[in-house]
Specification:
It comes from Kribbella antiqua. By secondary structure, this protein is of the alpha/beta class. The protein is 54% helix and 7% strand. The strands form three sheets. Strands 2-3-5-4 form a four-stranded mixed beta sheet.
């Protein structure tokens, strides 16, 4: 067993008592450059890059192997080959989207526009709203159709109104004009100005990201008549015809932002049809750009890469090709990935870690001084029904309906969207499939799904530096243990805590306990509101937007520490390389967040990302944990000091 902490990478000039993040990562931050094709890079991204290389090797092996026609490996090979066939893609230019643009040109009235929106959604073109099928958040044994706001092409509604994004809006108009010109559309410059004006109106109807994450506000279930009442003048029958789906798809609908749908319907009636046709043509060009010829790809990257994120170079073609295969055939690749990169012993070790984290949560909930017995009992009931999923699904997706042509990239992607849409729509009226995963096994991430009350850990993240079969327990608990704790914690964050053990939105709290919880979360909001990342020191974290993730981080690390102590079973951990077990635990947590970010990307993430910047996911969390202060002997004269009465303790 190894220590798992490279002490040569620790800073000799920054003390952990003053800045844990820069003590653990200082030399790395000084010496490493962000790769030219990335806007942000750190431990997560390095592991993702490694997984990407592994997947590339698998894909190229399938290309060389000559698998039988119709087999999933052959589909993987042919889809990748179609993306790498630059000669055919260049020759076709904008021809793949000609029929879609012709469809829009032929629209003569609002009913025709609604039908075109439906038909294009079936082909992967995002319209004025998004539609998907998911578990009903108040009837978790049924599926229901959800609809949510859309229609904008900048990252967030704030980009259309805030002064600090004015230069981006100007650059956006130039980008839209160039793209429309490449597609051969008339009056490209004038159309670009009008598209920004229309999208600004659409964005004005959007709920902001803080309001949009409220699970109670965004659950508005209506029947067909209620949907039509919300959207006067929008022809849902024509939309269904275009989307080629039966009427029962919108017999019951959860509308996430009712105000938006009313505002959008008003705009559809008041803005002249030709303006909408320009906008929809732009949506077609924008959505297809990464799959078209080099001129489209380069212009798309110039704005969405360089301008918005600061990344100076486009990702290599093979990386983008792997991404397309992941999107269309993710679990087919996942089966191949798991066979090569996820040994059974890793799954067994994770089962043990998860069990210890759940037990640690149970002990902490049992001991909470601010929670009454009734709410505590319901919290323990919910914890006891958590479903862990580790590594890969028990049942794999079937891709037999997807036809792949090695000479037709755009057609392959369009057909993939249609197949996945049909797969989703087929869920309506069927029993909920609790074996389904929302991430592929090769993904370097994890998630909590409140409607299933499940925590999911794909094989991709179960590798060093997060999970190392050969490493000391302290390091594994400080990294993957905290990730496990984080995902469990989402079941008890400000939004996840509104779901009960069965996965339904249901107020299982007493009013006194909810008030005590919100007093603590309010203090956490204030702590994070005061923080500004080094890359954009004049901009602040949004404590309300990031609250759920901050609760997850704080609870996850706190509980992981308890679980680590449980794993020791009373034994004293050894000192390794001069570091105690507790020191290795907190240093492991700090290493997990080692990250460098370009200023443009830092600003973009502050606007849209529910996660706090990496340095705060490290430092702001540990400041609230008594054991961190005890481990490193932090005093009120040190930079990491937070007075005991100011420390937030939730779970």
């Amino acid at each position: 067993m190894t220590a798992g902490i490279d002490t040569s990478g620790l800073s000799s000039t920054v003390r952990p008592q003053d800045d844990l993040y820069r003590h653990a990562n200082g030399p790395w931050l000084e010496q490493h450059e962000i790769p030219a094709d990335k806007a942000i890079y750190g431990a997560f991204h390095a592991l993702s890059a490694s997984a990407e290389q592994d997947v590339r090797a698998i894909v190229e092996k399938t290309v060389a192997a000559g698998h039988p026609d119709g087999s999933e490996p052959r589909k993987v090979a042919d889809l990748y080959s179609s993306f790498m066939d630059e000669e055919t893609i260049e020759r076709r230019g904008a021809e793949p989207i000609a029929d879609q643009l012709a469809l829009v040109r032929g629209v003569e009235d609002l009913g025709g526009l609604a039908e075109a929106l439906g038909r294009l959604e079936l082909q992967g073109v995002n319209g004025i709203f998004y539609t998907w099928i998911d578990v009903d958040a108040k009837k978790s044994d049924e599926y229901v159709t959800y609809v949510m706001q859309g229609g904008i092409s900048l990252p967030d509604e704030s980009y259309y109104r805030e002064d600090n994004f004015a230069e981006i809006r100007t650059a956006y108009v130039g980008h839209v004009a160039r793209m429309l010109e490449l597609a051969g559309l008339p009056d490209a410059s004038g159309a670009a100005e009008r598209i920004l004006e229309l999208e600004t109106r659409i964005a004005a109807g959007h709920w902001d990201r803080v309001k949009s994450r409220d699970v109670t506000l965004t659950y508005n279930k209506v029947d067909r008549a209620g949907l039509e009442e919300l959207t006067p003048g929008f022809d849902w029958s024509r939309w269904l015809t275009g989307y080629d789906v039966p009427e029962h798809v919108i017999a019951q609908v959860v509308v996430r932002e009712p105000d938006f749908f009313t505002a959008a319907a008003t705009a559809l009636r008041e803005v002249e049809l030709d303006r909408w046709k320009e906008w929809l043509s732009w949506r077609i060009v924008h959505g297809a750009a990464p799959l078209l010829s080099k001129a489209f790809v380069d212009e798309n990257f110039a704005f969405y890469g360089k301008t918005l994120t600061g990344a100076p170079e486009l990702r290599e073609r093979w990386k983008r090709g792997v991404g397309v295969v992941e999107s269309a055939l993710g679990e087919a690749l996942g089966q191949l990935y798991v066979a090569e990169h996820f040994p059974p012993v890793a799954k067994a070790r994770m089962v043990e870690l998860v069990a210890n984290l759940v037990e640690a949560y149970r002990q902490r909930i049992d001991a909470l001084e601010w929670m009454g017995p009734d709410t505590r009992q319901r919290a323990l009931e919910k914890l006891g029904t958590f479903l862990p999923k580790i590594g890969y699904p028990d049942k794999w997706k079937d891709y037999s309906a997807l036809e792949v042509d090695p000479a037709d990239l755009f057609g392959n992607v369009r057909r993939s969207v249609a197949v996945e849409t049909a797969r989703e729509l087929a869920k309506l009226g069927q029993p909920v499939d609790r074996t389904e995963w929302k991430m592929t096994p090769q993904t370097v991430n994890a998630y909590y799904n409140p409607r299933m009350n499940e925590i999911v850990f794909p094989a991709g993240i179960l590798q060093p530096p997060f999970f190392d079969l050969d490493a000391d327990d302290a390091v594994n608990y400080g990294a993957i243990g905290a990730v496990i704790g984080h995902e469990i914690g989402h079941g008890f964050d400000d939004q996840g805590s509104r779901y009960d053990a069965a996965g339904n939105i249901n107020d299982w709290w007493t009013s006194e306990d909810r008030a005590a919880f919100e007093e603590r979360t309010g203090k956490l909001v204030a702590q994070y509101d005061a923080l500004s990342p080094a890359e954009v020191a004049d901009q602040h974290v949004n404590g309300k937007l990031t609250l759920g993730e901050n609760i997850g981080d704080l609870g996850g690390l706190s509980i992981a520490y308890v679980a680590y102590q449980l794993s020791l079973d009373g034994a004293e951990p050894p000192v390794i390389d001069g570091l105690t077990g507790s020191q290795r635990f907190f240093l492991s947590w700090a290493h997990a967040w080692s990250t460098k970010t370009r200023a443009e990307e830092a600003a973009r993430r502050l606007a849209i990302d529910p996660h706090s910047p990496p340095e705060f996911r490290c430092n702001a969390v540990v400041k609230n944990i008594d054991e961190f202060h005890d481990t490193f002997g932090v005093t009120e004269n040190d930079g990491m000091w937070l007075a005991p009465e100011e420390r937030v303790k939730i779970w």
